[in-house]
Backbone:
């Protein structure tokens, strides 16, 4: 069976790409995924956080903010995405303070980010320990917190609800979904066959002739590979490098009972009266889940965490790494233990940790969310759809046009993001 477009991966990027392709072209479209339904892979394991007005690089601002504006307007139009703009609070110690403030000076001057002093933090969050000058704190690499950067419009959304929006619209448009189906191989074929048993030969022009799956072969004029952390497994046999590697990330959930209810009794930052999503740069973070009254805790570990697919959450990672740091900063967490946990994999672009969207032959590769895939997914989908349609320009939400090769590997010129946490 032949299709105009076949998409490998029914995660948020694959769904968004199919959505914008069918919005312009229509035709026969197939989406293949090994899971039982849409967005059941790493998309379902995402925190779903988004920054709004808290990037220093133009690319990040354009790609993320156009996507987030689309989500906000979609919810305003009546489609519940579970958006909670609780804000982002980035705690800064006395060593990081000056460099971080300098990097966001423009954002502060325009009101997109606010500077919160240590005195204001103590008043708003009386349960936070800012001193962190004792021997134990020093041993863990913690230092006195001098202040914080606050982004009032940032927050999180329900990723599965966002995925459901794209999925439902695609079903209405007649897109075919093939779940419980593993894409095993991208079949390389000659554009013009000469009947040679070992073709395509080195000198022949090539194309992706089909997708070999656990349910047989499917052919398409254009193939989009949006398999996230699994993308390189299908590209390696073809000699194509996306510069994407998977690395495990873990989340631990704790109900806000007893003293932990203080996290949801905060007047200063948002309408929900909860602590914002709170980050220690290159350290742990806390996400207040408003509807469930739970705390999601996590931390990215880079050196020492091997590359590879791994979905096993580790109790000892919480006990040894997250808990000592966060219970020092938030003493009311003392003795707190998670009631649930899960792990997913970042698809990390090892060049600059930004998404990649590029075309080789009739194959479009869209991956590398690196932990920010949800907040950039709508724009990535528009850019990937433009590539699939051979359009030189992609129009993002809000009317801004960008080159469709803005996220390509070749000739990549992306300004480094200074505000990393």
Residues:
């Amino acid at each position: 069976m032949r299709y105009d477009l076949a998409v490998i991966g029914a995660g948020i990027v694959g769904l968004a790409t199919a959505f914008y392709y069918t919005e312009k072209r229509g035709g026969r479209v197939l989406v293949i995924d090994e899971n039982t339904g849409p967005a059941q892979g790493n998309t379902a394991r995402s925190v779903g956080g988004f920054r709004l007005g808290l990037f220093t690089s133009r690319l990040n601002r354009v790609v993320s903010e156009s996507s987030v504006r689309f989500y906000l307007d979609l919810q305003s139009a009546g489609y519940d995405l579970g958006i909670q703009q609780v804000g982002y609070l980035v705690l800064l110690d006395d060593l990081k303070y000056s460099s971080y403030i300098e990097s966001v000076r423009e954002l502060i001057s325009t009101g997109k980010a606010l500077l919160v002093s240590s005195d204001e933090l103590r008043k708003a969050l009386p349960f936070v320990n800012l001193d962190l000058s004792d021997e134990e704190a020093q041993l863990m690499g913690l230092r006195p917190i001098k202040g914080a950067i606050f982004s009032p419009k940032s927050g999180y959304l329900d990723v599965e609800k966002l995925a459901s929006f794209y999925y439902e619209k695609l079903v209405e448009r007649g897109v075919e979904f093939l779940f419980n189906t593993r894409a095993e191989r991208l079949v390389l074929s000659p554009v013009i066959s000469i009947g040679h048993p070992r073709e395509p030969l080195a000198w022949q022009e090539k194309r992706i002739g089909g997708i070999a799956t656990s349910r047989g072969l499917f052919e398409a004029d254009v193939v989009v590979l949006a398999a996230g952390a699994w993308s390189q497994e299908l590209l390696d046999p073809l000699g194509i490098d996306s510069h994407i590697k998977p690395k495990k990330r873990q989340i631990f959930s704790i109900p806000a009972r007893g003293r932990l209810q203080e996290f949801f009794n905060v007047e200063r930052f948002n309408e929900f009266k909860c602590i914002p999503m709170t980050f220690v740069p290159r350290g742990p973070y806390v996400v207040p889940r408003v509807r469930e009254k739970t705390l999601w805790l996590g931390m990215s570990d880079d050196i020492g965490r091997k590359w590879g697919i791994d979905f096993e959450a580790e109790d000892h990672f919480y006990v040894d790494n997250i808990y000592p740091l966060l219970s020092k900063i938030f003493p009311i967490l003392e003795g707190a233990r998670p009631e649930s946990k899960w792990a997913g994999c970042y698809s990390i672009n090892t060049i600059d940790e930004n998404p990649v969207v590029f075309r080789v032959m009739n194959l479009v590769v869209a991956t590398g969310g690196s932990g920010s895939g949800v907040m950039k997914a709508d724009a990535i989908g528009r850019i990937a759809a433009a590539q699939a349609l051979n359009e030189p320009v992609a129009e993002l939400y809000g009317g801004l046009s960008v080159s469709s090769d803005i996220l390509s590997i070749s000739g990549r010129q992306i300004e480094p993001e200074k505000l990393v946490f």
Summary: The radius of gyration is 23 Å.
